[in-house]
Automatic annotation (TrEMBL), chains A, B, C:
Pfam families named among the record's database cross-references: CMD
Protein name, entry field: 4-carboxymuconolactone decarboxylase
Residues annotated as signal peptide: 1-20
PANTHER family noted in UniProt: 4-CARBOXYMUCONOLACTONE DECARBOXYLASE FAMILY PROTEIN, BLL4600 PROTEIN
Domain of life: Bacteria
Biological source species: Klebsiella michiganensis
InterPro entries linked to this entry: 4CMD/NDH-1_regulator, AhpD-like, CMD-like
Domain annotation Carboxymuconolactone decarboxylase-like: ranges: 49-130, 174-256
Gene Ontology terms, MF aspect: peroxiredoxin activity
Keywords, comma-separated and alphabetical: Signal
Length: 266, 266, 266
């Protein structure tokens, strides 16, 4: 009964007039938590349908600690990293409704070809191309294959490349080479995603894949480029739902270390 | 040749009269190790078909260190955690034949929405709903969305929530909040799965995802609720087949620590 | 524009005359980096199509630090370990074109049933059986289910089994038993893959799944059986593209330790 009321409440909350108002100001929460209908979810797990409407949509996506645009970026990155095309389809649609541009989606897929692997990006392409066709999004709306790159901070890059070369230059010259070019001298300098957003995508993918060891470097980079401590903490809360509690708890320990090292946590 | 004999032997072993007897007493081993037919497996890898019949069905599922009902719960949890819908379909059928109730399957899916992530649960819903329809399982057979919850052990919960709040309350207030409600005050208190089984599901999902760091807490909780040392060891053996040897070896080191700390291993 | 030139250049490079020459000598690079067409990739991410042609095919697969046959084995192992059937289909075709035999593909699938889990192997069977049918590959071309096994190095096996028994014999007798038989006394002794290649498959799957803790043992075993230091380093570079940079960086640290311990790195 409680679930029915909640669903009814949600559909009122997200109904036409409220939606119209939202369209003018705030971004939208997803109308539905899944590509599956509430009825399908209820037919297997009524409690899950309740958690989807009451908690996932009715609470998590309403929280202001992270913007809805950022939540969409985090969600899309997690789903590409975990290779879940069915829910990715749903959430690319939500992201486009939340003012993540097609060019940015394109850039996120490209970025995660490197951070989650080429096959994950191919699965994302397969899902996204149909959405782009359906929305009439053509190549002219996407980032160019070879745009003018952002100016490079040569000092930071020198430090990075020297460290990697010293550690692994004799072990895997190929890895060191490709990490410099195309990874850091090309991909990371592409203008299609703001550096803060590119780091947000990277951190989200690392949390989603349980790759805790590399979260620290990229979270610091994200915060150097404008991500706030509050946003960092809320990314973890969002990831708990989309990548599971264990990955969130592995990540929050690293976030805690980073924030303390930056003097941003008690 | 040996493989053909083994397959023939298996089909005799699992033939009608033996099956009828089993139905009255013990639970059944799966008739087949996969949604794929033995012929399909043989057409690619004859040895794999042999291992499937001789070892997976002919040995692992016959072992009494873990009941067949428990093996089904472990298998379903692993397949949801690793997002493998084709084999999940096969093993939800096996689980229902092994007296895991539809209500329990429903609860396992709901539980793993939190421990393996919402998208994994959605993939499990997509598979399970068709099985429920085919078996005529309606919502009246499932756990209610908001049932009366199990009584809470307030002392244990206070300790848990205090620790999490102290460690991460300033870092990710959202994660801390959602971990309390709905995770520990709602999901874990739902009566649709016995606490021992809920912990069995959690431990299985953690092993399957290689999340060793969090196995210890949940294995202790499982054993506090009745899981035996022998069962703990056999879960790892079962997981070796369904989640791969490397995950099993990462897990067995943690199981060893837990058992030794509880004075249950030499 | 640059992307179009690159694609044109690639199609010239890989065109008929060069190909004919390659067929006589070197193995082929894949004609395409994905089961998806270049047009599909460009419709979502023009830069990704450029990276696919310029870097993945135009550079990585051209490098001689690892043979194309080895690159195919590594790629197939990674895709089975990460359960990505769409790209696996493409790369099993490439592997067969690169003189990986059907019998070896069959053996890789069988091997990874143990190292990546039975369900991953079943997904690989589903993909591979159609390719075998289309190419007229019948069971007579595959390894027998129970062939005469390679001679066992009893001293090495005694050491392995004693260590595992001492560590985990009292914890999980089932895991210890199945690790001996069928894993080490049967699977690892099958003649269908050379020991060096079997270890190459294992190391690739471990890198792909982020299971760093177990790379060291199997990399040493691979090098004992003939894998060179240069090949070890290049496997990591190859895996960066197919399993993502974070897994490659976790792996390269272990490769570095192994090479230094063997006196093979500065």
């Amino acid at each position: 009964m409680k679930a029915f009321i909640a669903v009814a409440a949600m559909s009122l909350m997200l109904g036409a007039p409220a939606l119209a108002e939202e369209k003018r100001g705030e971004k939208m929460a997803p109308r539905s938590p899944s590509v599956l209908s509430a009825e399908d979810i209820q037919s297997v797990a009524p409690a899950l349908a309740r958690f989807g409407s009451e908690v996932l949509i009715g609470d998590l996506w309403q929280r202001t600690e992270l913007s809805r645009r950022d939540r969409s970026i985090v969600t899309v990155a997690i789903l590409i990293a975990r290779n879940q095309p069915a829910e990715l389809k749903h959430n690319v649609e939500v992201a486009l409704d939340n003012d993540v541009t097609a060019a940015e989606i394109s850039e996120i897929v490209t970025h995660l070809a490197f951070y989650s692997g080429w096959p994950n990006a191919m699965a994302a392409v397969a899902v996204t191309k149909d959405i782009f066709v359906a929305r009439g999004i053509g190549r002219e709306q996407l980032a160019a294959a070879s745009p003018e790159l952002l100016p490079l901070n040569q000092a930071v890059e020198n430090q990075r490349s020297t460290t990697v070369e010293q550690n692994f230059g004799a072990i895997s010259p190929g890895l060191v080479k490709f990490t410099t070019q195309p990874l850091f001298l090309d991909l990371w300098q592409r203008p299609g995603l703001k550096p803060r957003d590119r780091s947000l995508v990277t951190v989200s993918a690392l949390i989603a894949a349980g790759q805790s060891a590399q979260i620290g470097y990229h979270l610091n980079r994200a915060m150097d480029n404008g991500l706030t401590a509050q946003e960092a903490g809320e990314i973890v809360a969002h990831a708990a739902f989309y990548a599971g509690w264990p990955n969130a708890f592995s990540a929050v320990a690293v976030v805690s270390e980073v924030l303390r090292a930056r003097g941003l946590a008690g």
